[in-house]
Amino acid sequence: QVQLVESGGGLVQPGGSLNLSCTASGSFVAISNMAWYRQLPGKSRERVAHITHAGVTNYADSVKGRFTISNDNAKNTVYLQMHSLKPEDTAVYYCFANIKINTYDAFWGQGTQVTVSS
What we know:
Layout: E1 3-7, E2 10-12, E3 18-25, E4 30-39, E5 46-52, E6 57-59, E7 67-72, E8 77-82, E9 91-100, E10 104-108, E11 112-116
Parallel strand pairs: 2-11
Antiparallel strand pairs: 1-3, 3-8, 4-5, 4-9, 5-6, 7-8, 9-10, 9-11
């Protein structure tokens, strides 16, 4: 059974930093790409950052220059470094991955809360 397990959320003051990580575990053939999404209360989930297996990245405009996504393919892990955090970054952050078992399917982590507040 494939699982995405996230860690690293928490409470941070405005201007601070947090690092998230997400590791895929279980039996699978390959991962094509991974991403981080976030969901604010009462709003739909939005993609924050995306990275391909080859390391090509893209970001939502709201986080460009502040967040960095990276991956370690050997560890099946994706990271999100978040700097200069703002109160509007407060959300539940979800890890996403396209993982091949027989075919490629979408998998989601359980979510981790990030709260930016003084």
